[in-house]
Specification:
118 residues; alpha+beta; Nuclear Transport Factor 2, Chain: A; 3 helices
Length: 118
Amino acid sequence: MASEDPAVHDAIRALHARFDQLYNQGRLEELVELFYTEDGRALPPNAPTVQGRGPIAALNRAALESSDVQARLSSVHVEHHGDMAYHIGRYEVTVRRPDGRAIQLSVVIPSRVRAETG
């Protein structure tokens, strides 16, 4: 059942906004610390899996330095029970090439989010 609790949706939207801000400002070390586990993985298109916060930050830095890249997260579906939310999100990347053409990549990603306590 989809979450009807506005507080859960607000919290997820706040996380999306934080991701967008950190990525688009090139603050990738902060981004990977907040959004990836120490052994987290990134699945770049047409390339091997990248594992670990440092390599994931380096992968994204290379993308940012090679082109005009903007990222955006959004929600497709959210369910929650207690302090745990299950989220299906959309990760959208727009790459603007030097010739002005834009390439868009959109990936749907599942995730779990646990509320911080204390």
